[in-house]
Structures are given as structure tokens and as C-alpha cells.
Design a protein that fits this description.
Layout lengths: L9 E5 L2 H4 L40 H15 L3 E5 L2 H4 L10 H16 L3 E7 L5 H7 L6 H16 L6 E5 L9 H5 L10 H25 L4 E8 L2 E3 L4 H23 L4 H9 L10 H5 L5 E6 L3 E3 L8 E2 L6 E2 L15 H15 L3 E5 L9 E2 L5 E2 L3 H19 L4 E7 L19 E3 L11 E3 L1 H11 L8
Helix pairs in contact: 2-4, 6-8, 12-13
The structure holds 6-O-phosphono-beta-D-galactopyranose.
6-O-phosphono-beta-D-galactopyranose (BGP) binds next to loops.
Length: about 475
């Protein structure tokens, strides 16, 4: 039996400004934290942008977006998730007035989407904190960021009212636990960052996120505003109750973010964690009320699941999407060591829905792989990416299962629908796209675009409302 996805299901793809736009210093854009991280999370931060930083050029989407949106439309996209580069709107982050050229770029981009009936889904902050806010304020550790973010978000809601209906406040907000610079613009090296400062920064982001929900609804009552969580289901490595509790505790560290966004209060297990770790969150008057502005929907990324154990001797560490855990002996891994678990997606959809009873949106999922460009039968270059088709097919079958389970799912945006620069390793050779981009890690390439085999496959999946998926 193949599941027919609802006609209202929002099929599409996802990207982030800093990973594909390029044009890092054009039209008044300021520097962001990404412009000084040439090796992603694997290497040091530079003083100034350096030529080996692939993100400075990205895939030149800033100048080629019309061609790319046309290709997305050809696949039948109903939604396109991208982010706004904060530094195009407020180059330093603490200005009082926005940069008109930056605002105009996104106006044009969203108009281009609407031309094809594609709904934009916009992340307000996706790993691109203005560098000035990072260096001068230490990023989200500083309470002042709440005000800067509020001004930025208010500018966006006002400008794009009626043009953007779906908003996400912070990309993978829980990733700050592991990548405080990339995720939270925190300049203090993570080895030196205290838990006190980390959780205070998290509090500021949670307050900022709830503020965005509040003002977004005031400015545009039709806007739907969601949070975005890095989901990574954590299974106990064995049935040993020690492992079960270790897995539960590890899940709590991440559920915390969804719990505050969806329920509007700090959960008891976090209060205990704060007590036991000597953390005291400084709350300003009004914060508790602001947090009650809960999100309209929960969105999340899903790539891998991990295991947890109470016994460090039985741990075989695996790689993961910014987080890692104990390896699952039943699963295979991608070329980058990320363990592939399609059923984990059904599991996480059910877990979130049982917990929150709010609509869910899968806004990232996909396989990073090395592709080989070949000449197709028609003489046009292409990629036979059957491995990617299999990965996506198997995950979408599980989305169908979750729909059958009664989970309310708004849509699915495949990550990196066009090849772009990887967030963790800053490589272009880690490709996710349905569209191949001729650009390479050594900075060579024509930037030409070619349809991969998966392009036609995804087009078919969308056209048949998922009925072409293979069980
Ligand atoms: C998520 C990020 C994305 C994206 C994706 C894939 O963590 O939200 O920005 O890049 O993971 O990760 P990577 O690019 O490291 O392969």
C-alpha cells in the first residue's frame, strides 16, 4: 500500500542564505560569523574573510536565483525554505535603520517564488549572526541581542507581510549546546564557555523567539511562526535501565527547547539540571509572560539517530549532525559517518506530535554524498544518484507511515535541494541537491547547474502526491 499524501502537503526544498548566496560583501552586506569560519566547525575562526572560505561565493545564488527558482518550479515545489541573511538587513546588527538594498533582494526573491506559486518558508536566523554582535557583545550571552533581534524580526514581518506566511525563528536552536559560535554567535571559545553563560544565552534566544511569535502575530495575524529543532532520536544502547535513563536525560537536553516553545514554561527536569549544575537563569520582569507566546507549529531537521549508554566502556562513538552519540550496531552510515535510520523519522514525528499536539514541518532531511558528473543519454551532464533517491524514498515512506499514524504534518523540504556549501565541514563536495552545481572544493568550476536523476524522481513524487514512492 502506498500512502497518498494530502493535496495540501507542502513539498519542497530547503537552503540557508550563508550556504549558497555568496555575494558576501555586496549591496551593503556586513560580515557574519560564517564569513570568518572557512572550515565550518572543524577549524579556527579567521580575523578577516579568507579566499579559501567557500561560503564567500557559495553557489552565487544571489545573482542566479531566478534560474534556480525556475528549476524548483519545474520539480513542482510548493514551498521553498531559505533564510534571510541578518547582515544584509542590519550589516552590524545594532543599527537603527535597515539596509534597503538587502530588503529589496528578498522582496525580489519572494516575488520570484510567488510567480510560480511557491510559498516561501523563511528562517529569520540560520547560523549567520552579524560578526559585530559576536565580537562586541559576545553574541547571545548578551541580553542586548534580544532587542536587536526584535528590531530585525519586526522589520521583516512588516516588510514581507502578505508575501511570507511561514516563519522559523532560529535554525536548530538546540545546536547552540554544541556549537555556540556558529549557532549563537558566542565568541568565547566553547572550551572556556561556562554552563551559566551558555544557558543564559539560551534563555535570551528563547525570549527572542517568543517575542518574534508575539510581534509576528500582531503585525500579520495570518503569519504562522514555528520553532526549528535539530532532532536526533536517542535510543538506549541496550535494555539496561541505566541506558534507558541515560537516553532519557540526553533527550531532555534537546526536548527542553521544544518544550519551552510549545508549552511556554521551563520544564521541571531543566530546573533540576540548573540546580545540580549551579546555574541561575537571570529572568527579567515580563520574561515568563513573553515565553507564553507559543509557536504555531514545530519544525525540525532529521538526518540521524544515535544511541546513549550509561556505561562509557560499551560506547562506540558515531558522527552526527553537530551532535554525536553511541553508534547503533543495526545501522549503516553515510560517507561522513552519519548513521541512516529512516524509521527514526517516523519515530520522531510521533514523539513530537504526542508531546505537543501541534502541526509538524520536516524542514531538513537528506543525504550528503560525493557525486560524479557523467554525460547523460541526451548528451547533457547529469548524476546517477540512486543512493540519494533510496535515502529520500525510504524516509518519505516513513513520513507516509506517520501520516497513517495520525500525525499532522504540514510539509517536507529536502535539505540542500540544490548543491551548496556544507555547514559543518564547509565543503561543496558534500552534495545534497537534486541539482548539481559545477563548483569544487578547490574553488574551481563554472557554477553551471545540471539536473540529477533525483530531480526527475522528486518531480514524480510530488506530481503523484507520494504514490510513486517504493516500499
Ligand atoms: C543542519 C543545518 C544545515 C545543513 C545541514 C547538513 O545542521 O541546519 O545548515 O547544512 O545540517 O549539514 P552539513 O551541511 O554539515 O552536511
Amino acid at each position: 500500500m502506498t500512502v497518498k499524501f494530502p493535496e495540501s502537503f507542502l513539498w519542497g526544498g530547503a537552503v540557508a542564505a550563508n550556504q549558497l548566496e555568496g555575494a558576501y560583501n555586496e549591496d551593503g552586506k556586513g560580515l557574519s560569523t560564517q564569513d570568518v569560519a572557512p572550515q565550518g566547525i572543524k577549524g579556527p575562526i579567521t580575523e578577516v574573510p579568507t579566499e579559501d572560505n567557500m561560503k564567500l561565493v557559495g553557489i552565487d545564488f544571489y545573482h542566479r536565483y531566478k534560474e534556480d527558482i525556475k528549476l524548483f518550479a519545474e520539480m513542482g515545489f510548493k514551498v521553498f525554505r531559505t533564510s534571510i541573511a541578518w547582515t544584509r538587513i542590519f550589516p552590524n546588527g545594532d543599527e537603527l535603520t535597515p539596509n534597503e538594498k538587502g530588503l529589496q533582494f528578498y522582496d525580489d526573491l519572494f516575488d520570484e517564488c510567488h510567480k510560480y506559486g511557491i510559498e516561501p518558508l523563511v528562517t529569520i536566523s540560520h547560523y549567520e549572526t552579524p560578526l559585530h554582535l559576536s565580537k562586541q557583545y559576545n553574541g547571545w550571552v548578551n541580553r542586548e541581542l534580544v532587542g536587536f533581534y526584535e528590531r530585525y524580526a519586526r522589520t521583516l514581518f512588516t516588510r514581507y507581510k502578505g508575501k511570507v506566511k511561514y516563519w522559523l525563528t532560529f535554525n536548530e536552536i538546540n545546536s547552540i549546546l554544541h556549537e555556540p559560535f556558529m549557532s549563537g554567535g558566542i565568541y568565547t571559545p566553547k572550551e572556556q564557555l561556562s554552563k551559566q553563560d551558555l544557558y543564559q544565552a539560551i534563555h535570551h534566544e528563547l525570549v527572542a523567539s517568543a517575542t518574534a511569535v508575539k510581534i509576528g502575530h500582531e503585525i500579520d495575524p495570518d503569519a504562522q511562526i514555528g520553532c526549528m529543532i535539530l532532532s536526533m532520536p536517542t535510543y538506549p544502547l541496550t535494555p539496561n535501565p541505566d541506558d534507558v535513563i541515560a537516553a532519557m536525560k540526553s533527550e531532555h537536553m534537546n526536548y527542553f527547547f521544544g518544550d519551552v516553545h510549545a508549552r511556554g514554561v521551563y520544564p521541571g527536569y531543566m530546573k533540576r539540571y540548573f540546580r545540580e549544575n549551579g546555574i541561575e537563569i537571570h529572568m527579567e520582569p515580563g520574561d515568563a509572560d513573553i515565553l507564553k507566546h507559543t509557536v504555531d507549529f514545530i519544525s525540525f531537521s532529521y538526518y540521524v539517530s544515535i544511541c546513549e549508554t550509561g556505561d562509557d566502556n560499551s560506547r562506540n562513538q558515531t558522527e552526527g549532525n553537530l551532535f554525536s552519540g553511541a553508534a547503533n550496531p543495526y545501522l549503516e552510515a553515510s560517507e561522513w559517518g552519519w548513521q541512516i535510520d529512516p524509521q527514526g523519522l517516523r519515530y520522531v514525528l510521533n514523539m513530537f506530535y504526542d508531546r505537543y499536539q501541534k502541526p509538524l514541518f520536516i524542514v531538513e532531511n537528506g543525504l550528503g554524498a560525493k557525486d560524479v558528473l557523467i554525460t547523460g543519454e541526451d548528451g547533457v551532464p547529469t548524476v546517477n544518484d540512486d543512493y540519494r533517491i533510496k535515502y529520500l524514498n525510504d524516509h518519505l515512506v516513513q513520513v507516509g507511515e506517520a501520516l497513517e499514524d495520525g500525525v499532522e504534518i504540514m510539509g517536507y523540504t529536502a535539505w540542500g535541494c540544490i548543491d551548496l556549501v556544507s555547514a559543518s565541514t564547509a565543503e561543496l563536495s558534500k552534495r545534497y541537491g537534486f541539482i548539481y552545481v559545477d563548483r569544487h572544493d578547490d574553488n574551481t568550476g563554472t557554477l553551471d547547474r545540471y539536473r540529477k536523476k533525483s530531480f526527475y524522481w522528486y518531480k514524480d513524487v510530488i506530481a503523484t502526491d507520494g504514490q510513486s514512492l517504493q516500499r
